[in-house]
């Protein structure tokens, strides 16, 4: 294998450690970082305080590691190298060269496809919910529905989101605006035996919560509401149960189906 690498030209040369890292299962989201970028210390500013055994880890990534150490030490340095590569990766993929490499992977749908039916398998982009390492795992962003999803594979779900950052997916579409897809106007319409389900139940639920809220306010003001229950007695409310309902629906607008109208407090279908 090393002979194969040795036969490559300098421009096509691929580092052994980086090639192993990129080809490892679970690391498909990563692209290869150029040698020139890794050896420019300006690009690595501040990372020495975030990575244990920083210099050894960098030497391992750049294939100049020659420390004679035991297996435990080697494993610790290897872990640090993977972490360091991820942190550098977050910086590299927002460069011109890094964006171009991630664009190739995006076009091939290496990051997966949107699970939403009406997005028609639109390719996804990896993103982080924070730029701080060891906080949240990587998520996948769909530019068509503008929503975020969990990776299907548990291997990918374990990747740190900081290795991609919170800005990469947005910068991608700023640099390549032609990639930005049109937003889908398709929405699922609930139907029963072919007939659209109207919003009568949702309206009744919304009215019930508002009525309960009014009863609570009138009771606090010691004003009789005049509402009677089925037995003709003054209507009582259960504060604990209705608090849960109010938390669920407070401020939620009633989205009536367009073929349903309200007349005189009743819900009637529109002819």
TrEMBL record:
Q: What InterPro entries does its record include?
A: Casein_kin_II_reg-sub_N, Casein_kinase_II_beta-like, Casein_kinase_II_reg-sub
* SUPFAM superfamilies reported for this sequence: Casein kinase II beta subunit
A cellular component term from Gene Ontology for this protein is: cytoplasm
Renumbered residue ranges of the record's region Disordered: 226-271
PANTHER family, per database record: CASEIN KINASE II SUBUNIT BETA
Amino acid composition bias (Acidic residues), ranges on this chain: 232-254
User: Which domain of life does this protein belong to?
Assistant: Eukaryota
Give the UniProt family note. Belongs to the casein kinase 2 subunit beta family.
What is this protein for, i.e. what is its function?
Answer: Regulatory subunit of casein kinase II/CK2. As part of the kinase complex regulates the basal catalytic activity of the alpha subunit a constitutively active serine/threonine-protein kinase that phosphorylates a large number of substrates containing acidic residues C-terminal to the phosphorylated serine or threonine.
Q: Which GO terms of the molecular function aspect are on file?
A: protein kinase regulator activity
Name of the protein this chain belongs to: Casein kinase II subunit beta
Q: Which GO terms describe its biological process?
A: regulation of transcription by RNA polymerase III
Q: How does this chain assemble?
A: Tetramer composed of two alpha chains, one beta chain and one beta' chain. Tetramer of two alpha and two beta subunits.
